[in-house]
Amino acid sequence: MTLIEVLIVMALIALILSAVVIGSGQMSSSRLRHSSTMITGAIRVGFSRATASSKTVRLVMDFQDNAIWLEEGDQPHLVQTKDKSGTGGAAAATVMEQESLEESGRILKGPTAPRTSFREIDAMGLVASDPGKGHKPLERGIKFRQVQTAHDYEPRTEGRAYLYFWPGGQTERAAIQLKIGDSGDENRTVTLIVAPLTGKVTIKDGAVEMPQPQDDSEASDREDPGAF
After folding, report:
1. Res 49 pLDDT > 70
2. How do residues 71-102 score in pLDDT, each as one tens digit?
3. For a designed S-S bond to 88, which of 40, 57, 79, 144 qualifies (C-beta 3.0 to 4.6 A apart)?
């Protein structure tokens, strides 16, 4: 094989590898968009379900399985802000949450109000007959990077995060960050910003922190341009 032939082969290999890398990046970006759309749809359903049923509903976001689903409370639920367990004052649903609640109980002794229990609901709004079957995984290779809602003590990066919806049409302010794989590159991240009064979702490129309004005008989302 002559030197010219070797150079031609090397050029072809480089061209093929470049095409593979570009194609892979486009597929990952597409999966990221699809996952964002799925979560946006779930937020819309949760918002509508709480209004229609007059019950508290929440969206569960599981970091371990990178999946989402909806749950409904067995009683009206007033979210506790800055709750270190991450449940917002609801009953524990995981071992991690139970341990956190027990630790809080050792620090803050005394009687406590009954905690709301939540059960998974299916697409029809009925209690799921086979819990877990209706969990919706994010697209392959897409993961939760960080989730923060108004009731969170700090942004959550493990376990489960919850976004609550209440009768009358209201949810929590939230920032849901999704990433491609295990990359820490913010250019491979998108953030879903949830408006509390309307439930509208704005999708932004990069890792965006949850807005912290300083006054009533900033807290209002009546002019929020976001859309489902």
Report:
1. yes
2. 999 998 888 876 777 888 898 889 888 888 77
3. 79
Q: Which residues contact 131 (CB under 8 A, 6 or more apart)?
A: 119, 120
Which residues are bridge partners to 189 per DSSP?
179
Per the structure, the complete domain to which residue 25 belongs is given by 3-219
Tens-place pLDDT, residues 95-127? 888 888 777 666 666 556 678 999 999 877 777
CATH assignment of the domain containing 112: 3.55.40.10
Is residue 182 domain-resident? yes
What DSSP character marks residue 63? T
Domain total in the chain: 1
The span from the CA of 71 to the CA of 53, in Å, is 12
Whether 227 is in a domain gets the answer no
Q: Round to whole Å and give the CA distance between 43 and 24.
A: 29
The pLDDT assigned to 46 comes to 95
Please give the single-letter amino acid code of residue 188. R
| 86-95, 133-142, 154-163, 218-227: range with lowest mean pLDDT | 218-227
Question: How far from the centroid of its chain's Cα atoms is residue 40's Cα?
Answer: 9
In a domain, 228, yes or no: no
Specify the DSSP element, H or E, that contains 43.
helix 3-53
Give this prediction's pTM.
0.81
Q: CB atoms < 10 A from the CB of 208, how many? A: 18
Quote the CA–CA distance of 94 and 99 in Å, as a whole number: 9
Q: 192: part of which helix (H) or strand (E)?
A: strand 189-194
